[in-house]
Amino acid sequence: MTMLLEAEAPTTTAPDWELVYQRPQTLVDAPTHYCPGCSHGAIHRMVAETIDELGIRGCTICVAPVGCAVFAYKYFALDSCEAAHGRAPAMATGLKRVLPDRIIFTYQGDGDLASIGGNEILHAALRGEQISVIFVNNAVYGMTGGQMAPTTLTGMRTTSSPYGRDPLTQGRPIHITEMLATIPGVAYAVRRSMHSVAEMRKVKKALRLAFQAQMRGLGLSIVEILGACPTNWHLTPTESLDFIRDRMLPEYPLGDFKVDERLRD
């Protein structure tokens, strides 16, 4: 019996595994506080991959303000700082002027950037500040309870617009990226989306160009990313991706609104 078992014993040779993915060095190995299906986690990964690929981790500083990404400094393995609500562009401006050899980027939500921080981003763009802005638009205030944001769609229900956003009394959605694209100090202004793998690949390319615009001293760059918020939309993660495609894209078309010709080289 013993001889039979030895003869039939499986081999212990390790399989020839092929490494297809590994965590970026710039991304900390830690669980996040984001809700299931939220786009922030995947966007963080792409930001980290881009920083690794450009070889700029040692000279990059992240500025995160109040919002869903308030703890972004816990997830990026680089220098980070916290700004007051909406004030990330102002803090980024100060950092870049004091440390011009650093790569400075802000990571902001739509309530933060388009509402309380609208003045900050506008004047940073008018000054042509050499910073990169990552702007995640999920059409709602995420962290504070799902209230209506400046980017909330017409007719969309939120905790502060329970009957749907009425343009007659609450105005229409703001298009920050198109507005900034008209300003001479802006070198790169594009909108991308997280609703499909194909579009996510375009997000990654846009992030790279946004950092390169700063590295070449071309002016302010902004990448708006349409992201999912299943919790405040009261949808499943899969339904949320469909919501971006079917509801958000008609209001916020994807595309390049301004690309400095020197980035096309």
Task: Give your account of this protein's structure.
This protein is of the alpha/beta class and 265 residues long. The protein has one domain (34-263): Rossmann fold, CATH 3.40.50.970. Helices cover 37% and strands 16% of the residues. The chain contains 10 helices and 7 strands. The chain has helices at residues 2-8, 40-54, 88-98, 110-116, 118-126, 167-170, 176-181, 197-215, 230-233, 237-251; strands spanning 60-64, 79-82, 103-109, 132-137, 186-193, 220-226, 255-259. It has a 7-stranded mixed beta sheet with strand order 2-1-3-4-6-5-7, with helices on both faces. It starts with a helix and ends in a 6-residue tail after the last strand.
Write the layout of secondary structure elements.
Blueprint: H1 2-8, H2 40-54, E1 60-64, E2 79-82, H3 88-98, E3 103-109, H4 110-116, H5 118-126, E4 132-137, H6 167-170, H7 176-181, E5 186-193, H8 197-215, E6 220-226, H9 230-233, H10 237-251, E7 255-259
Parallel strand pairs: 1-2, 1-3, 3-4, 4-6, 5-6
Antiparallel strand pairs: 5-7
Helix pairs in contact: 2-8, 4-5
Largest sheet: 7 strands, mixed
Helix content: 25-40%
**Shape, principal axes of CA atoms:** globular
Give me the CATH superfamily.
Thiamin diphosphate (ThDP)-binding fold, Pyr/PP domains
Low-confidence stretches: none
- Supply the helix-strand structural class: alpha/beta
Q: In the CATH hierarchy, what is the architecture at level 2?
A: 3-Layer(aba) Sandwich
Instruction: Compute the CA-based radius of gyration.
Output: 21 Å
SS elements, strand count: 7
